[in-house]
Amino acid sequence: MPHSYPALSAEQKKELSDIALRIVAPGKGILAADESVGSMAKRLSQIGVENTEENRRLYRQVLFSADDRVKKCIGGVIFFHETLYQKDDNGVPFVRTIQDKGIVVGIKVDKGVVPLAGTDGETTTQGLDGLSERCAQYKKDGADFAKWRCVLKISERTPSALAILENANVLARYASICQQNGIVPIVEPEILPDGDHDLKRCQYVTEKVLAAVYKALSDHHVYLEGTLLKPNMVTPGHACPIKYSPEEVAMATVTALRRTVPPAVPGVTFLSGGQSEEEASLNLNAINRCPLPRPWALTFSYGRALQASALNAWRGQRDNAGAATEEFIKRAEVNGLAAQGKYEGSGDDGGAAAQSLYVANHAY
Amino acid sequence: MAHKFPALTADQKKELSEIAQRIVANGKGILAADESVGTMGNRLQRINVENTEENRRQFREILFTVDNSVSQSIGGVILFHETLYQKDSQGKLFRNILKEKGIVVGIKLDQGTAPLAGTNKETTIQGLDGLSQRCAQYKKDGVDFGKWRAVLRIDNQCPSALAIQENANALARYASICQQNGLVPIVEPEVIPDGDHDMEHCQYVTEKVLAAVYKALNDHHVYLEGTLLKPNMVTAGHACTKKYTPEQVAMATVTALHRTVPAAVPGICFLSGGMSEEDATLNLNAINLCPLPKPWKLSFSYGRALQASALAAWGGKAANKKATQEAFMKRAVANCQAAKGKYTSMGSSGAASTQSLFTANYTY
């Protein structure tokens, strides 16, 4: 092995590490507001709103005009490219509004999935071409972190070894390039909940995928202290007939992370996937009450689970903006509590259920 | 990916996990008394004692018949095959003496190095043939953990990708087989200190090696909660002219572990390599005082660093038994204190130098 050629200077490392820690400071998580134009089309059509650039601007304004209450529960906001350059009704750039609240600005940098030939419908993610130049520009324009989403799915023969390897590798290349440009990479290897597999199967697959991701990050000399992980929680497939409690989801999730995510990673910001707002909060809360030792922050990077009620309350009407913003603030505060294990949700079993599963730990 | 085929039942996992935790509970560590016949020859020659089976038996008897309070410092003892079947002068089996003190009995399982052709004098480890049957027999004979030492070296083009990959794979095969037979595998990927490289280079190599080891363990479906790691501390090569303090060694070591060892691993028991008894203790103490998060127990698995004074005190004479036992107990107690960060000796730098190196963290 040749001598090491340091990828980053001490100052670069410090900057990245500081940014990451700011985003996942205690009680804080991320608002994923980076829906692409296509994804926004789906969201807006569900509330009967036309998918125009102005409507997308108005909607993001609803979220970003939240008052100082969000300062203590939102550490970062992920933007889509278009939104990074949009302004509010008073001509103030959204980036500045967010930064002025002490919240870190992030940017989605991947360019969507492409098929892997010879597999059972599996994909990798594109976006590496010219990524360094794009990151440098985004950094100038106020972004301090980025996000890149890879997608894996569980079925009879998937995820295949190729899909795991290829997606882990592309995530590592992305992460390396981000760090060279002073941007903290959020690494998102999402395993979709589609299917009828049980909790155990999801846990097994999640462990394999995360082990491959961290091996790839090591191979590509990525500085773990300057990254964040955005994984799926470990849950059964949508079509699985067995129901599991938040405590069971929590135990499986934390066990999988403990076996694969090095303690150097400062924070794990879960995606909400198809979970409802309340489910996403209850699960995050249970995760933060799990009796196993957890050396990283465990918080949220939610899209739908922070915005569903707000979107519904807004319905494209300016008059509804205030009420819609309130809905968003409400979910943000709830998730801020859940990120500390302090959310007393409806029907929460509390200590007993969490305790009873500790002994069953070894079954995971 | 095919369906998961569980390698271990819940009961098997529970047993392994409990054994591992027992070994490193409350600051306890391991006495590595598994010197092969040849290695014992080296030790005995230095004190002018003939390398006979009886002499080896006598020395081990003195160590194992020490006062019961030793079990507060020593959680496990690694034996060589011969020693497992030896008895004290009253005819009592050594392994029963140890068990009655509440000490877990372990066995060296590897069968030494073998060269890797086409490399710069690098090696892999033999011992997989018939390993399962050997493990089953040892388990019947009272053993609850195994140890297997892989060796990597730093030099021109070393460790090569092949050496890292091959040794990690052999370690994972050994670990898998151990667990199938109820033995906790101690995984030892030693990066030897030979050479003039600096501490930073050792850290870089150690990180690469450990990342490969944990990827291999994951690939081989090894249950991390039922394993222990026995790594080198991160130090400069023996011939390096630059000197480092225990606090620097500690920061480099914990940083490397932090970036590669999942929190699920219950304990990390350092080897002492060529360190003096006092250096091994001071370094372990500094490691336990290192301000980085440390989700695993950080303890010792020392051979020479627990026995050097004892050997010198013995000199092959039965009359020196008491002095020998005192010398051994002194090191055992000292290292147990170090494993809790509570070791004080004359010349220890204390809190100040630990503090001053914290901000230098980012250079690691």
Write out key terms for the chains shown.
heterodimer, A: 364 residues, alpha/beta, TIM Barrel, eight-stranded parallel β-sheet, two-stranded antiparallel ribbon, 13 helices, 10 strands, 44% helix, globular, disordered C terminus, B: 364 residues, two-stranded antiparallel sheet, EC 4.1.2.13 (chain B), lyase (chain B), glycolysis (chain B)
Walkthrough of the structure:
Chain B: Homotetramer. Interacts with BBS1, BBS2, BBS4 and BBS7. Forms a ternary complex with G6PD and TP53; this interaction is direct. The complex is a heterodimer of chains A (about 375) and B (about 375). Chain A is of the alpha/beta class. Chain A has one domain (about 10-345): TIM Barrel (Alpha-Beta Barrel). Chain A has 13 helices and 10 strands. In chain A, strands 8-7-6-3-2-1-10-9 form an 8-stranded parallel beta sheet. Chain A has a two-stranded antiparallel ribbon with strand order 4-5. In chain A, strand 4 (about 115) and strand 5 (about 125) form a beta hairpin. In chain A, helix 3 (about 55-65) packs across helix 12. Chain B has a single domain (about 10-340), classed as TIM Barrel (Alpha-Beta Barrel), CATH 3.20.20. In chain B, strand 7 (about 185-190), helix 8 and strand 8 form a beta-alpha-beta unit. The interface of A and B includes residues 17, 164, 219, 259 and 260 of A.
